[in-house]
Design brief:
- The complex is a heterodimer of chains A (about 240) and B (about 270).
- Chain A is α/β, with parallel strands linked by helices and about 240 residues long.
- Chain A is built from nine helices and ten strands.
- Chain A has one domain: P-loop containing nucleotide triphosphate hydrolases (Rossmann fold).
- Chain A has a six-stranded mixed beta sheet with strand order 6-7-8-3-9-10, with helices on both faces. A four-stranded antiparallel beta sheet of chain A has the order 2-1-4-5, with helices on one face.
- In chain A, a hairpin with a 2-residue loop joins strand 1 and strand 2.
- Chain A is globular, with a radius of gyration of 18 Å.
- In chain A, about 40% of the residues are buried.
- With about 270 residues, chain B is mainly alpha-helical.
- Chain B has one domain.
- Chain B is about 85% helix and about 0% strand.
- Classes of the chains: A alpha/beta (about 240), B mainly alpha (about 270).
- The interface between A and B is medium-sized, with 28 and 15 residues.
């Protein structure tokens, strides 16, 4: 049976002045799938994920997320859709004037998120337990290490129980051990929360652990698709080079 | 003087055109931004706690500077006007003249300018830093409507806080004036206050209060707008703070001019 498509992108274009970043991207993400995107810096991987949640307006093309047309939907529809899509930013983007508890409570309170089984406080503890940082509940972001910040940001993303998570370089700037832990965590989250994910990464260990399939992006389009093993053992040196 | 070649002339022309286009684009965006912020003010959930927190922080931050400035203004104004009024034998008018000039014009404008420098730049820098560190983006993608939480609460806070600060500035300026009057002659507090308030009428108080509400609104709005539309680099934090001060200060003068024109017609 065909798996449900949660993201469908067709012929997506985006330019910044004369610089053509996305040049006709096509992409399909199925429910429960972890898709990795690799490619050189500055080729538009983050632009693509930001277009998916319309943080950046695309120039042309269509994006359907969970059946909603992202490009043409109005503000309220977009807001509702965004609640179902989690986004983990490169730097974590924790709200630095709020404690960890307040960071997690904020989206619950502001979106008036209702979970019939759990009180907000229980949701916070559950999310923090998922990322193994329940002890940090009363800390401020400035007291956390880079890895902890990413985990807390992930917990904040999970608290609204998203169906899709977009990871923007989740292991960048972390040591090898912490990177490995975050990559394992991404896999665990998929199993626990039944999410689909797009994972932008330069970290091949993360790509190996956390993704089912990988797409290689070059000059604004995807040039190859395959599993980690297929691509890392490709006949083409140019493709193999991404996996060194 | 060195002559510009054709290419340089064209570039200057292009830059000038971009500069003026930029002003109109900025103005247009500010109008849309204002509309969105005003809409957010009436949409639940209402952030009462954030409003109180921002009001306290912003008011607290400027309180000392505002009252000290007000006090010195009253003191200096009295000391400078006393000899002039003495020449005409009109010394008894001094408290009233100081009260009218402070309440109608100097109190609101000086406080507005101080708040533009301290509050508007602070808001601009803070929101720009949130933009640079992707905190605003993080709020947007989780559907938490940052315009309501971050901007509307600050705009509301400044709209309430600036008039309150103006009242304090006016009160402390009268205190300064009272002390200065007492340097030249013994005047009781009651007599001073009677003379000061005898010259103040509704036409002085109402436009001045309305003006300070608008000052507060625009100080918060412009600071927020500059921060919210900041670029992605760290230098944009400084630029936002800087341009927030310039734009807020100019706006204060423009609003003041409009009010003076209207009240002079009335």
């Amino acid at each position: 049976m065909d798996r449900e498509k949660v993201i469908e992108i067709e012929k997506l274009y985006k330019s910044f002045r004369e610089k053509h970043i996305l040049q006709g991207i096509d992409l399909i993400l199925h429910r429960g799938e972890n898709l990795g995107i690799v490619g050189k810096s500055g080729i538009g991987k983050s632009v693509l994920t930001k277009c998916i949640v319309r943080l950046i307006e695309p120039d042309a093309g269509s994006i359907r997320v969970l059946g909603t047309d992202v490009v043409s939907c109005d503000g309220e529809e977009l807001n509702e859709l965004r609640k179902k899509v989690g986004y983990l930013f490169q730097g974590g983007a924790l709200y630095d004037s709020m404690s960890v508890r307040e960071n997690l409570l904020f989206p619950v309170r502001r979106t008036q998120f209702v979970d019939r089984k759990h009180e907000p406080e229980e949701l916070i503890e559950r999310s923090l337990r998922s990322v193994g940082l329940l002890d940090a509940i009363d800390k401020m972001p400035s007291e956390l290490s880079g890895g902890m910040k990413k985990r807390i940001a992930l917990a904040r993303t999970l608290i609204l129980k998203p169906q899709i998570i977009l990871y923007d370089e989740p292991t960048t700037g972390l040591d090898a051990v912490t990177s490995g832990e975050i990559s394992e965590l991404i896999q665990q989250i998929r199993e626990e929360y039944q999410t689909a994910a797009i994972i932008i990464t330069h970290d091949m260990k993360c790509a190996r652990i956390a993704t089912d399939t990988i797409r290689i992006m070059k000059e604004g389009i995807f040039v190859r698709e395959g599993t980690y093993d297929e691509l890392s053992q490709s006949q083409e040196k140019e493709i193999r080079d991404y996996f060194i | 003087m060195k002559q510009l070649n054709l290419r340089q002339k064209l570039r200057v022309k292009e830059e000038t055109r971009n500069f003026y286009n930029g002003i109109f684009i900025d103005l247009g965006e500010l109008v849309i931004f204002t509309g969105n912020v005003v809409r957010q003010l009436f949409q639940p959930p209402f952030e009462h706690r954030e409003l109180v927190k921002q009001g306290f922080l912003l008011g607290n931050k400027s309180f000392a500077l505002v009252v000290v400035t007000g006090f010195i203004m009253g003191l200096v104004l009295t000391m400078q006007m006393n000899p002039i009024l003495s020449d005409f034998g009109a010394q008894t008018l001094l408290p009233g003249v100081i009260a009218v000039s402070m309440v109608r014009e100097l109190g609101p404008v000086i406080t507005g300018l101080i708040c533009a420098g301290k509050i508007s730049s602070g808001i601009g820098a803070e929101i720009a830093a949130m933009r640079v560190t992707e905190q605003i983006d993080a709020m947007e993608v989780s559907g938490t409507r940052p315009l309501s939480y971050v901007v509307a609460s600050r705009v509301m806070a400044t709209t309430i806080v600036v008039p309150v600060l103006v009242i304090f500035a006016d009160a402390f300026s009268l205190l300064g004036a009272f002390l200065a009057v007492n340097i030249f002659e013994d005047t009781s507090t009651t007599l001073f206050m009677n003379r000061a308030f005898s010259m103040l009428g509704f036409i002085d108080l109402f436009p001045a209060t309305l003006k300070t509400v608008l000052f507060g609104f625009f100080i918060g709005l412009i600071g927020s707008y500059k921060g919210y539309t900041a670029g992605r680099g760290t230098e944009s934090v400084g630029l936002s703070a800087n341009s927030a001060v310039v734009a807020s200060s100019l706006t204060i003068f423009v609003i003041d001019l409009i009010f003076v024109l209207i009240t002079s017609i009335l």
